[in-house]
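Technical note accompanying the year-one report. For the benefit of new consortium partners, we illustrate the data format agreed upon in the data management plan: each record pairs a sequence with a structure-token string. No post-processing was applied to the example shown here.
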Amino acid sequence: MTPTDLPPTEQLVEAVRRADSSQALLLATRELAASGDPGAAPVLVEVLGFNNPGAAVAAVDGLIRLRGAAVEALLRLDAQNYGARAWAVRALAGIGDVRGLELLEEALGSDVAASVRRAAAKGLGTLELHHLSTAEQERILQRCLQALLAASADGEWVVRYAVAVALETLAERLQSRGQSLQALLDGLDSLAQPADGNPPVVQLRARLAVERIQRP
């Protein structure tokens, strides 16, 4: 069977597999990502490990577009493939599926790249929980809160900035469930304090978060 005899999505997959240059891979990945076909997920995940940043960005966009249909393929990634796992964290953060919680926690707490930790922080603030029971939602929100509070001492300010944003988002969800916000506010207060290595942009963002949370 020639490539033109294949179904449309399989033709796009074949184009990715036959790409013989970085540019060809980028273009083929963009087309596959734009298809919106859940069957494209495994191949888009493969692209994350091809050492082609442009194609990886396109693959992440496509995986986020697929939402929950992409999660299992992302979670099956080899933990030893660091480059691919870093891109997977970005995809899972954008998808917001609770199945990615453990990987996001791990990335925020221990990934060597600040950009990956920043993405993980964002993801922990925006997980979709509406389909879960109230008890399960509360349990997961507490896990997210503890991970973010621990990361408020991260050595990179860009991560701490993301933590401040995520804590504000999380506060809205905790408030709607009647849960205590004191630990969260204490974490933001620590981010708002002048200190060596804590630039004004982080301090101001943390203060803004506190003001918004406490606004009547």
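Partners are asked to follow this layout when depositing records. Residues 153 and 160 are 7 Å apart (CA to CA).
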